[in-house]
Fold this sequence. Notes:
Helix content: 10-25%
Mean pLDDT: 93
Shape: elongated
Structural class: alpha+beta
Number of strands: 6
Strand content: 35-45%
Order of helices and strands: EEEEEEHH
Amino acid sequence: MFYVPYTVQPHQDGVLLFERDVELFIEYYLPDGPRGLVDWDVLEFHFDGKDATGKPVYTKIGRSHPLFQIMHVDLDREWLDERIREMLADDGIVDLYPALPHV
Length: 103
């Protein structure tokens, strides 16, 4: 599991609710090894900011929170797929380019 910086842009009924930089807490599996596809999912959205007194505040939105589904629907999965693979490749966990499937 690891974190991926991301900008959430959830929409409701076609209206942009907000835009905010967060960290996605990602869980991943390599069912076909380091040359195969990365199977991943977002477990939590992590937010930081400051309260009314200026004190740093950190919170997270997990799967059971109603806002999670609204944010999850609008994730750019193609971009995340590429970014997650790049991050794992940088750490030597996967090959940067997955093996082509046999035809």
